[in-house]
Write a structure and sequence with these properties.
The protein contains eight helices and no strands. By secondary structure, it is an all-alpha fold.
């Protein structure tokens, strides 16, 4: 009789574990972790871009001494972009907007710098400059990929938060809120269009 009761308890326990695994007990925290990881990748790629800029500015400065205002605009935009922080544990639409605006300002400044470079054929031919330009283009591509992954991760997490059966587990155990999505408003779209392009 005792073994039948123990087997019954085991079956109930296994049923509850199986049911809870399918109802968001694990998938909700995993989804949150994924959004934090994809956001970290975005900030990592923006940092990589910011790290390239001092070398790029110094290389351009050697050839384009009369372009001080353009170079200064890039340096100032870089300072704003690197000081813009984003907290994955406390995201808000305003925080995302400020971060995107700072990064977009740097994208615009770099776009203007690349237009100035067109006037200096010796600079365009400089091996150092070409390598920096190629690294910058690769980084811009990585930023786009990282942002797309983050948008998908947020979408998946938000679905877990509001769509049953996972939302039931969220209501019982976690109380996660939907995360604000990265958006591309009209101003940001213009900044993206102005992303630096590499011309050889």
């Amino acid at each position: 009789m005792r073994s039948i009761r123990n087997n019954g308890i085991r079956i109930v326990f296994l049923t509850l574990v199986t049911a809870s695994a399918g109802c968001g007990i694990r998938s909700l925290p995993q989804g949150k972790n994924l959004t934090e990881a994809t956001l970290a990748e975005i900030t990592n790629q923006y940092k990589r871009r910011a790290d390239l800029i001092p070398n790029l500015v110094n290389t351009v400065k050697g050839y384009a001494k009369h372009e001080k205002s353009t170079l200064q605009a890039v340096v100032e935009a870089r300072a704003k972009a690197t000081s813009a922080k984003i907290d994955a544990s406390n995201l808000s639409p305003e925080q995302i907007q400020k971060f995107q605006a700072a990064q977009g300002g740097l994208t615009q400044a770099l776009g203007r710098l690349m237009m100035v470079v067109e006037k200096y054929p010796d600079l365009k031919a400089d091996r150092n400059f070409r390598e920096l330009q190629a690294q910058l283009e690769g980084t811009e591509n990585r930023i786009t990929i990282a942002r797309n992954r983050h948008i998908q991760a947020i979408n998946k997490f938000n679905n877990l938060v509001i769509v049953p059966p996972e939302s039931w587990a969220n209501g019982l155990f976690y109380h996660f809120e939907k995360m604000p999505q990265w958006s591309v408003d009209a101003v940001e779209a213009k900044k993206i269009e102005a992303a630096p392009t590499v011309k050889f």
